[in-house]
Amino acid sequence: MVPDDVLTIILPVRTLLDFFNAIPGSQEVQIKTLTDDISWAKNEKRIYLKHSLETRLVGLYVPPLAIYSSQRC
Question: What is the pLDDT of residues 53-69, one digit of tens each?
Answer without folding.
Answer: 999 899 888 876 655 56
